[in-house]
Amino acid sequence: MANLKAPCLSLDARGSVGEAISFTERRGQKIAEKKPVLPYIKSLPLQYQRWLYQDYAFEWTLRSQAVKAVYRSAGTRFHLTAFQYWMKYNLLNLPDIVGMWHLDARSDAIVPDKSRNSNHGVNIGAVPATGFIDGCLYFDGINNYVEVPDSASLRLTDAITIHAIIKPDSLADTQGIVEKGTFAGAWGDFSLTVRNDNKFSFAFNNGAVGFQSAYSIGLEWAD
Predict the structure, then answer these.
(1) Which of 105, 160, 197, 208 can bridge 128 by disulfide, Cβ–Cβ 3.0-4.6 Å?
(2) Beta pairing partners, 29
(3) Cβ-contact 120, 136 below 8 angstroms
(4) How many angstroms separate the first and last alpha carbons of the chain?
């Protein structure tokens, strides 16, 4: 039996070996390294990051030239373009997000807020279930909910966006998705609900209650 003093490896590897190993040159030498394995493309963290990236990229197109000039100036010291600095700043600081609850099938009593505002919630009865991506929380529509204490960051007086991914079991009764305030015989600050006529409804109370009905919804995943 022959003794090998060096691995039998071609620097022009093909097939499965070539797909698993990459070659880089360091200090005049070729180094063989195992290629990194990318995480599952549909994992929740990657999807959240992708959605945030798309939102902030779109928001950039709405900025004035004066605002873009500010980011261009700030990015120069880091050798970044105005757009790159805008994306870096927003993705790191999430300045426009007042609350982000993933509800990703955690059985913990505390539902963490992934924004920078620490608006953590308490899970009241909801149980882990299979979600649209990975897991989710299942609410029975009777007395299950996540309760988030009031805070200054949640007292909204300007334009807002509410994003949720839901899958109703039934559309026989009106069910709340997000509600700010008591909504027990009196209007709270705002709410997003699914009505019993198969439509989303958004209510915003700024002294005069207003409704905005959107498109119809079925019993499939919707956002």
Answers:
(1) 105
(2) 26
(3) no
(4) 64
Question: If DSSP codes are grouped into helix, strand and coil, which group holds residue 212?
Answer: strand
pLDDT on residue 219: 63
| Mean predicted confidence (pLDDT) in 64-85 | 95
Q: Give SS3 for 133.
A: coil
> How far apart are the C-alpha atoms of 168 and 193, rounded to whole Å?
11
When pLDDT is cut at 50, 70 and 90, the band that residue 81 belongs to is: very high
The DSSP letter of residue 214 is E
Q: What's the predicted TM-score (pTM) here?
A: 0.65
The answer to whether the CB of 207 falls within 8 A of the CB of 159 is: no
| All residues at 6 or more sequence positions from 222 whose CB lies less than 8 Å from its CB, including other chains | 165, 166, 167
pLDDT greater at residue 107 or residue 118: 118
Sign, Cα dihedral of 8, 10, 15, 16: positive
Lowest-pLDDT range of 75-79, 136-140, 165-169 = 165-169
Pairing state between β 135-138 and 127-130: antiparallel
The residues, ordered by sequence, that sit 6+ positions from 3 with a Cβ below 8 Å of its Cβ are none
Torsion angle (degrees, nearest 10) of CA 123, 185, 223, 197: 130
- 183 with 191: CB under 8 angstroms? yes
User: pLDDT digits over 176-208, tens only?
Assistant: 888 887 545 455 678 888 877 777 778 777 655
CA dist 46 and 38 (Å) reads 11
Give the distance, in angstroms, between the CA of residue 184 and the centroid of all CA atoms in the same chain.
30
